[in-house]
Amino acid sequence: MLTQKLDQVESRIAAAAARAGRKRSDIQLIAVTKKFPASAIREAYALGLRDFGENYVQEFDAKRGELADCPGARYHFIGHLQSNKSKKAAEIFDVIHTVDSCKLARRLNDELGLPDIRLGRPAGMDVLIEVKLSTEPAKAGAAPEDVPALVDAIRACPHLRLLGLMTMPPWSDDAELSRPYFARLRELARQNGLQHLSMGMSHDFEVAIEEGATMVRVGTALFGPRKKAA
Ligand SMILES: *Cc1c(COP(=O)(O)O)cnc(C)c1O
């Protein structure tokens, strides 16, 4: 049941925030609904959740029609953004967490400048820079040394508002192994004068909160395991 799972996640967030001497209201819970139907978003919305994370542009575009009566919901794109999908992403999402190159930032900015692209929605787009802090070859994200230039490039884009940084540590059963990555992201954000830290998933969000996360992205702990890709 989603109600119970949400209660459990909320008490884990509260306990981690208390340990770190932080306020619950400084941490946004983003419910990650990839591979779940629109009904999962609607159920979570009915329980008061307003921030939803999705990884695939086409998948979310297909669900959107069933979400017209969820005012105030904010949709966060947290997957890898291919440049041929950026225009659609600019149309349908409120926040993009995975900007990782100047080229992608400029492309999004140009698309957001097109007339009518965000009809009836706030102009401009909130974005975060995805930073690759591990040496795993497959992970997306900007190299830490490229972050200052990317920050400058995004700040020069009139249609983008830079909120902060996002990262995904290498997956491990042991949440403590994520801690140095989260601490590193916090330091990078501080150096660049950025407020938000999107970090922490179902298995390590408490550690992320202890290290300063302002947005945690939680799927499995709320909705259960996802089906494996066919
Ligand atoms: C799927 C996903 C999540 C949620 O992961 P869970 O382990 O299910 O909580 C968070 N962030 C990103 C970038 C994801 O792709």
Structural class of the helix and strand makeup? alpha/beta
The ordered H/E elements are: HEHEHEHEHEHEHEHEH
What ligands are attached or bound here?
Answer: pyridoxal-5'-phosphate
Largest sheet: 8 strands, parallel
Radius of gyration: 17 Å
Helix coverage percent: 25-40%
List segments where confidence is low: pLDDT < 50 over at least 5 consecutive residues. none
Number of domains: 1
Overall pLDDT score: 95
Proportion of β residues? 15-25%
In whole angstroms, the N-to-C terminal distance is 26 Å
Q: Which homologous superfamily in CATH is the superfamily?
A: Alanine racemase
Q: Any guess at the CATH architecture?
A: Alpha-Beta Barrel
> DSSP helix count?
9
| DSSP E strands, number | 8
CATH domain class: Alpha Beta
* Spatial sequence of strands, sheet with the most strands: 7-6-5-4-3-2-1-8
Note the overall shape: globular
CATH topology: TIM Barrel
Walk me through this protein's architecture.
By secondary structure, this protein is an alpha/beta fold. It has a single domain, classed as Alanine racemase (TIM Barrel). Helix content is 37%, strand content 17%. The chain has helices spanning 2-19, 38-46, 57-63, 86-92, 102-112, 147-155, 179-191, 205-210, 220-223, and strands at 28-32, 51-54, 74-77, 95-99, 125-130, 160-166, 196-198, 215-218. Strands 7-6-5-4-3-2-1-8 form an 8-stranded parallel beta sheet. It starts with a helix and ends in a 7-residue tail after the last helix. The protein binds pyridoxal-5'-phosphate. Pyridoxal-5'-phosphate (PLP) binds at residues 32, 34, 55, 78, 168, 201-202, 217-221.
